[in-house]
Amino acid sequence: MIPDDRLYTEQHEWLKLEDGEAVLGITDFAQQELGDVVFVDLPSPGQAFAEGFEIGAIESVKAVAEIFTPVGGAVEATNSQLEDAPELVNEDPYGEGWLLRLRLDGEAPDGLMTAAEYEALLAGAQEAAR
Amino acid sequence: MERTVLYRRHVESGARFGPFAGYEMPIQYEGVLAEHRAVRERAGMFDVSHMGEVRVRGPRALPLLQGLTPNDVAALKPGRAQYSALLTERGAFIDDLLVYCLGPEDYLLVVNAASRVRDLALLEAAAAAERTGVRVDDRSDATALIAVQGPRSAGIVSEVVGPEAAGLRYYSFIHQDEALHQDGLGRIVSRTGYTGEDGFEIYTSVERADDLWMELLEQGRDSGLAPAGLGARDTLRLEAGMMLCGQDIDEETTPIEAGLSWMVKWKKGDFVGRDALACQRRDGCRNRLLGFEALGRGIARRGHRLKVSDRPGCSGPVTSGAFSPTLGRAIGIARVDCAESGVPEPGSAASVEVRGRRIPCRIVKLPFYRRPKA
Hints:
Chain A is of the alpha+beta class.
């Protein structure tokens, strides 16, 4: 199930907005595509990023996926659990496997998808793969 | 894209597929880490039917193969196999392969899928030059290959193909049922592999592959046998320090540069690439394939650049890089230019830059992993 308490990007990231902050993670589909995650590269708290910039990377056994932030902001906190337990990204991508929390520069941009819209995107992608 | 005869079984087992050498191959089932561990601790089973099998037969088969490969085919007795190669005149790899001696004038070459067409053309041209006395027969499309690898593989395989399998030495094989298949290969059970673990590779006709796969899966259930994909095969072979043709070794790399000098037998007669290799042996070579491991977090991957510290010019591209599930850190092989500063000793400090961050590394003697003695 895709949680409907947050927004989604075409890069298969999720974004949970609350009180001018955004928690960022990757979707279940993304973690499945990546396979076993072995390292997560995250920025230091305090670093600021503009919308669309590379903010970190997730290394799986098979591949590396860069993480681009869909919103501009400064890093408030990163998920320090991932340092010793990167597999949390696989096991609980919408919960314990969150990546980082940002203090937003402004409003969240348009164009982010709702859970239903993201689900439709995945269904479309699967249809195309057939 | 081609599919192996076992494709349907992989779908049933929940495989994720990817393209490899023109085939749609299972990359992983449960996950690379789980499959890697299954092979190291119990047993894993791979469909590697994309590999090519070329039979070379006739009174002139031995001299033909002696002239084309650097290892000594004459030293090979029926029932034994050897690791060898097809080389260019410059001594570099066209392909690496296994030579099986089926009989005095009867050999089977097992080649990489990506180089099969080229290998075949080369063998056929050499056979034509002999005029008579050699028959080259591409059995690839009629042959499936199942690898069972891991400490429990001998128990599983011998239950299915017969107890004699457990008595095989490394690089030995038994040839079964050949009479039943006339011009086919029959079944070859070989104690070889590409994982660094004890294991078997079983060649069989495509008609019988499905039954064999299911029998092995069933027999291995209680031993924890898991189907494993090319993802785990790659991390396993890299830990074992085994080269991947087309990636680590290619037409720019000789056996000497790759640390595979042992496959070159100088006491046999002439073979393609011999003169070039003799020069390298005498004068040394510029590039070396060296193993390295990361000391920090991050994974050096193919295309990144390894730099050896305090040695001017001593650097080169990573040819294979992955996370080692057994060691818990990143490992890799790099093609390092040693012309200016010599070959760095194991333990030498080095580094790789990944996404703008420098990861400290150390040169390591291959292999990264050796299986515990039984």
